[in-house]
Amino acid sequence: MFTDKQILRIPGPTPIPPRVQQAMNQPMMGHRSGKFSALFAKTAERLKPYFGTQQDVYIITGSGTSALEMGVVNTLAPGDEAAILVSGNFGERFAKICERYGVIAHRLEVPWGEAVTPELLDAFLKEKPQVKAVFATYCETSTGVQNPIAELAEVIRKQSDALFIVDAVSCLGAVPCEMDAWGVDIVVTGSQKAFMLPTGLAFLAASERAWSVIEQNKSLAFYLDLKAYRKSLKDQTTPYTPAVSLIFGLAEVLDILEEEGLPAIVKRHELMRDMTRAAMRALNIKLMAEDAYAATTVTSCDPQGAFDAEAMRKALTKHYNISIAGGQQHLKGKIFRIGHMGYCEPLDVLQVIAAIEMSLHQIGAPVELGAGVKAAQEVLIAHV
Ligand SMILES: *Cc1c(COP(=O)(O)O)cnc(C)c1O
């Protein structure tokens, strides 16, 4: 086995294209140099289409959670009330950040595996007209559910002045996002998921409505103070030292994304979702998300006790050097999650499915070898 051929099929960090790896090896540059400033400003500009916005996109050195925290601390003050749509682990993270800053978090919780529907949100907001912000997760990575952000935004815009703040960490760059057209106020994402980079960058865009709130807000933040990032970006720079090498990598990622084009990228991810789901169905493994809300970047599978998910994952790593993810929180040890985003294509999906089948066989679980692969192949053939 080639030890450098570690196959990552977890929902982040994701594999890095060799071109991007190489770009990150460029010699270090002064971060206040004219050359870097020009690259930085252009790179930030090129992120806009993935958010679907005319607004500036801010690049923060930090993991995705730093941008989640930015979305909270810059818009709300202690004592403010917010609605948090919790469909899994990451929705709950938004609630915890709010509470840490003294914001009263009203959770609209759905069972893990379900999406927050516009009807649920409509009823919830009628009961809580005082909330100043609504927080949602686009792709809930812990369950593989994609929440209907456009429809949720419509509900909010109809009946409330609340800001709509969306965590799109595990899907932006692979899914449609029309922040301006949908009426979303803040979208945040990170570098190590569909953006095919190492962890270390977070991206955030804010609407004009959000900015009018942010400008009035007496934020507690220092490093995460968005106003400082806005002031610096006007001068093509950042308030603190940026992760220069990651910016080199990001510029290369944007080349790759532009070469394929977002519509084709979205279709590729839909195809990988459909292949994975067809395979799991053929293997009689329950899918956590229903078709209408199934994420295109990660698929959550629940063996419902038919086999030991952790033993299967261990066999997969031991024999095939492939990593997939387990469950989080109360689903730890019970489910498995396959990441299929970023530098991943349909043939890679066949590989992970074939390896899962063999691992199931090796742990003594009943499995018809090839059944999942065949189902996925049929989906792929129908597309090409
Ligand atoms: C990965 C992820 C995050 C960010 O996690 P970090 O570890 O801080 O990068 C946030 N939200 C979702 C939905 C995620 O998948």
Kindly list the characteristics that best describe this protein:
alpha/beta; globular; 384 residues; Aspartate Aminotransferase, domain 1; binds pyridoxal-5'-phosphate; Aspartate Aminotransferase, domain 2; five-stranded mixed beta sheet; 2 domains; 14 strands; 16% strand
Question: Please, could you describe this protein's structure?
Answer:
The protein has 384 residues and is α/β, with parallel strands linked by helices. It has two domains: 7-13 and 261-383, Aspartate Aminotransferase, domain 1; 18-258, Type I PLP-dependent aspartate aminotransferase-like (Major domain) (Aspartate Aminotransferase, domain 2, 3-Layer(aba) Sandwich), CATH 3.40.640. It is 44% helix and 16% strand. The chain has helices at residues 18-23, 34-46, 48-51, 64-73, 89-100, 118-127, 149-159, 179-182, 208-216, 226-234, 244-260, 262-282, 309-320, 346-362, 371-383, and strands spanning 7-9, 57-61, 81-86, 104-109, 133-137, 139-140, 145-146, 163-167, 186-190, 201-206, 286-287, 298-302, 322-326, 336-339. A seven-stranded mixed beta sheet has the order 2-10-9-8-5-3-4, sandwiched between helices. A five-stranded mixed beta sheet has the order 1-13-14-12-11, with helices on one face. Helix 13 packs across helix 14 (346-362). The chain starts with 6 loop residues before the first strand and ends with a helix. Pyridoxal-5'-phosphate (PLP) binds next to helix 4.
What bound compounds does this protein have?
pyridoxal-5'-phosphate
> Which structural class matches the secondary elements?
alpha/beta
User: What's the CATH H-level superfamily name of the largest domain?
Assistant: Type I PLP-dependent aspartate aminotransferase-like (Major domain)
Task: Describe the main β-sheet briefly.
Answer: 7 strands, mixed
- Compute the number of strand runs: 14
Outline type = globular
Strand order, main sheet: write it out.
2-10-9-8-5-3-4
CATH architecture of the largest domain: 3-Layer(aba) Sandwich
Number of helices, where a helix is a run of at least 4 consecutive DSSP H or I residues: 15
Overall mean confidence score, pLDDT = 97
Provide the domain count: 2
The termini sit apart by 32 Å
CATH topology of the largest domain: Aspartate Aminotransferase, domain 2
Protein name: Aspartate aminotransferase
InterPro entries: Aminotrans_V_dom, Aminotrans_V_PyrdxlP_BS, PyrdxlP-dep_Trfase, PyrdxlP-dep_Trfase_major, PyrdxlP-dep_Trfase_small, SP_NH2Trfase/AEP_transaminase
GO molecular function, one term: alanine-glyoxylate transaminase activity
Family: Belongs to the class-V pyridoxal-phosphate-dependent aminotransferase family.
